[in-house]
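Have a think about this chain, tokens included, and walk me through the fold.
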Amino acid sequence: MLEKWLKLQNGSDIRGVALEGIEGENVNLEAHEVTCIAGAFAKWVSGKVNKPTSELKIAVGRDSRVSGPELMQGVLNGLCASGTTALDCNLASTPSMFMSTIFEETKCDGAIMITASHLPFNRNGMKFFTNQGGLDKPDIKEILTEASSYTKPDTAEGTTEKYDLISRYSAHLVDYIRAQVNHKTHYETPLKGLNILVDAGNGSGGFFAEKVLRPLGADTNGSQFLEPDGMFPNHVPNPEDNDAMASVQKATIDQNADLGIIFDTDVDRAAIVDKGGKIINRNRLIALMSAIVLEDAPSTTIVTDSVTSDGLAQFISSLGGTHHRFKRGYKNVINESIRLNEEGSHSGLAIETSGHGALKENYFLDDGAFIVTKILVKLSQLQQENKTLSQIIEALREPQEASEFRVKIKLEDFKAYGQSVIESFTAFADAHPDYSIVPNSFEGIRLSCNAPEARGWFLVRLSLHDPVLPINIESDIAGGVDIIAKTLYTHLKSYESLDLSAFE
């Protein structure tokens, strides 16, 4: 019984199949499950804040998914059955749900966001917050364990209150931009004269055009897919998806806009397109945010995930910062940045190539809208200097080629086998004079390639959840990725339990 519940865990989130419609994917997350999980969360929060569940206030919001309203009612039922006051925030963003624990008007003891980020329409999930931030893996396991045997407490029913959280959150961003830009003649409308469009991908991010950009004076003509639609009919809301980025890029070029903004479904990730159509995501977004943060905090440490490029490290160093690569997973990157600060080493930014970015000044909350807010402040300042965002990162050296190969492991005990493959690259480096191990790899093993025909690097790591060895390769030479890949293939083909079709 417990095993069924634990299968819903996805790192520090809960993810499951909420709707039929995709062959082979059986529904395992419905109203009953989320009711039990919500009740278990209330009990967990009660223990953390040392208050009975009847004195708790917990906020609940959802993204635009089709299954959202039904699951939200299940969550509200679970909280009310525990005697808790449930704040019904309806359509919201993941970052705004955390802020419900911070805003003086709400001061919630906890918050639940019903979302599955950019996953297909049939999926859904839950993210949890206290005023200390998002929960970690052990917390989720504890809550699911409690949910597996959860029964309705013999207490009085709690109450439900409706609250327009997204408007309060939007006002918070508007106030921040006005204060930071402090425009001498247009304090209320510091974005006046700028055409800025939003592509929400039919997720929850459409509010940003109406409630943030327009009050600041921006022209939002050209914005698209702002209406919530959980079937995502236009493109997947995902700043890493090529089709999604091509869509917002085209809109920005066609509109001759000063900036295009794209959010994922629940607005904890973002990317942008600069005037002229240059896509700024992944390493470019990290470089841009690093440059902005380093202006205010010279010599700070920027924590990223493990697959960032060598050019990015050089760019951060050239600005006086320190680049610290860590394990993939947004919570891993955020927690590492928090750890560095606690040890006395200032780290102002934790950001993944996926677009998850968290700033020290913003509670280390991975907030796509706040990342964009920081960029808008810079854009307004640059407008007065007749400069563009791309000029800030023009010194970023980008690889000529980059690819990812996902090598499947054909064993049930894939973790031990995968680790043995990773360890074999120590001997690989000894046998190949053009390759050397990059020190301080916190995930897998990273080797640089100094061969003149294939200058670059590769990283071999073990997937967090799947029997897969993702191998990332970058090269500064055209054709270099293919040369490195062939060398890796020769090394890996002696491992009979690896599926090397990704190379072939």
